[in-house]
Amino acid sequence: MADHVVRAELPPSGARSGDLGMAVDGALTGSDSFAESQSLAAGKNGPAPWDDPAVERALLLDAQRMARVGSWSSDIRSGQVYLSEGLRQLMGLSDGCTATDALDLIHPNDLPVIDQFRDRLRSAQASETVELEVHDGTGTRTFLVRGRTERDADGAIVRVHGTVADVSPYRAAEQQASQDRRLFGDAQRVARLGTWEWNAATGECIWSTMLYELLGVEPGTPVTYADYLALVHPEDRGWVHQRFQELATDGRAVEVEFRVVRPDGARRVFRCRGEALGPDNGSPIMIGTAQDVTEQRSTETRMMRSSQRFTDLVAITPVGIALLDESERVVDANESLCQLLGVDLERLRGMPAAQLVHASDRGGRLLASSNGGRHGTGPFRVGQRVLVTASGKPVYCELSATVSIADDGERFWLVVFSDVTDRRKAAERLHYQATHDELTGLPGRAAV
Asked: What is the spatial distance between Cα 293 and Cα 271, in angstroms, rounded to a whole number?
């Protein structure tokens, strides 16, 4: 490919910045103005424009404005300080400002740094550049100040010059990136989650600092896929390796949970997710996460065992137990309640609890209080209710209930049915004997 060179002349002295653009446009389009400029460059109509100091100054000012930078210099012997027009515009200073005016714009907390900057300039070599960063009075803008000294033959400083650049956008981006990294690291630490990268072609792995910590490996230690696989529990290693090979060969995303034996002998449970970085371009790079879920699985196991113990207890208890939803429909019941009512569980499920009440009872909702109101949410006694069996026979029960809340927040009533039919019959029999004559069966004086 041939090289293309574009030449454009500088505008004449005193030309506006737009004239420079017209000159460049002419160079690109081949207009007559460009031809005229070529003749100027050849010296036919006078000296070349770029030899004009005024033009050079205008271009320098434009360059400083675009780069958000300004220049300064200080003559040590005369004490004169020069602030470029670009610097004054950058900092919002007037044409007649002094160095003191510029320093007044600096945040008070940065003033001690200015003194250190001066000391460093005094001890710096002639070609050495000294840098510092300062903020404006509001603390929202950041300026990068660079300085360099000029010395005479005896080594004495005769002049100091430098630049000031507004680096606020860059520092804001760096601060945001730093904050994002910190938040990401904090999130990994809280979630006990690390990230990894695996080159399936070379076997080399890159782990996040958190993953090193979770797996008990010294941070920074070079690791490979083989090192990772060696940490997997021997009983899980085979199928885990198979799944990751499927990821590497087919690009099929993987999500596995397995046991890990750390170098210190501790056993942990990890949940690992992975996928190909570029599944469509054949990239050998695989990326993913690894989360230590040991505590969660331990808690779940304890809850499952506790739930199973409760289920076993409900199943073998001699009293009837039912779980009702908030509308008082039967959700579940134990075998004792099914036997008490003579109804199988499948038929009992979904049945309104009101249908369990005998016609001789006070009626209404099963869990209604004696005055018809609703009991509270804590454990409470409903009192004695007369239930009905499948054959229509009345059964006297003492009811106690409490609220049970499921994992999804749904509320249920846990109701205990204690059969007091025999006790009630015995009490009625004793009352009859106490109030009736044993031989005639007629009411005695106690009954009058």
From this structure: 7
For residue 90, with 0-12 CB atoms within 10 Å meaning exposed, 13-18 middle and 19 or more buried, which class applies? Answer: buried
Buried b vs exposed e over 253-268: b needs ≥16 C-beta within 10 Å?
Answer: ebebebbbbeeeeeeb
**Residue 208 and residue 188 in contact, taking contact as beta carbons nearer than 8 Å:** yes
Dist. CA 241–CA 62, nearest whole Å? 62
Contacts of 428 (CB under 8 A, 6+ apart): none
State residue 148 phi and psi, 5-degree precision: -150, 145
Q: Which two tokens stand for residue 410?
A: 């749904």
Please say whether the beta carbons of 252 and 239 come within 8 A: no
- pLDDT tens digits, 247-260: 998 888 999 999 99
The C-alpha R_g of the chain, in whole angstroms, comes to 45
Least confident piece of the model among 41-55, 75-89, 175-189: 41-55
Residue with tokens 């006297």: 396
Q: Which of 222, 221, 216, 231 is nearest to 204 (CA)?
A: 222
Q: Please give the average per-residue pLDDT across 331-342, as a whole number.
A: 91
Strand stretches in 58-156, DSSP E: 69-75, 81-83, 130-135, 142-151
pLDDT-derived band at 236, boundaries 50, 70, 90: very high
Q: Give the number of residues written for the chain.
A: 448
Quote the distance between the C-alpha of residue 352 and its chain's center.
Answer: 46
Residue 18 has pLDDT above 60, yes or no: no
Find, among 165, 166, 161, the residue nearest to 147 by Cα.
161
- Count, in order, helices (H) and strands (E) of the chain: 14, 16
Taking the model in full, what pTM does it have? Answer: 0.48
- Which residue blocks in 92-233 are alpha helix, DSSP H? 99-104, 111-123, 168-191, 209-215, 225-231
- Residues in Cβ contact with 59 at an 8 Å cutoff, skipping those fewer than 6 apart: 10, 20
Q: What is the DSSP string of 111-127?
A: HHHHHHHHHHHHHS-TT
Q: For 32-56, what is the mean pLDDT? A: 53
Convert the pLDDT of each residue in 165-190 to its tens digit: 998 888 888 888 888 788 877 888 88
b/e burial code for range 126-146 (CB count within 10 A of at least 16 → b) = eeeebeeebbbeeeebbbbbb
Contact 243, 254 (CB under 8 A): yes
Nearest Cα neighbor of 348 from 417, 292, 268 is 417
Kindly report the backbone phi and psi dihedral angles of residue 196, in degrees, each rounded to the nearest multiple of 5, phi listed first.
-145, 160
- The residue whose two tokens read 């007649």 is 96
Q: What is the C-alpha to C-alpha distance for residues 291 and 304, in angstroms, rounded to an integer?
A: 22
DSSP 257: E
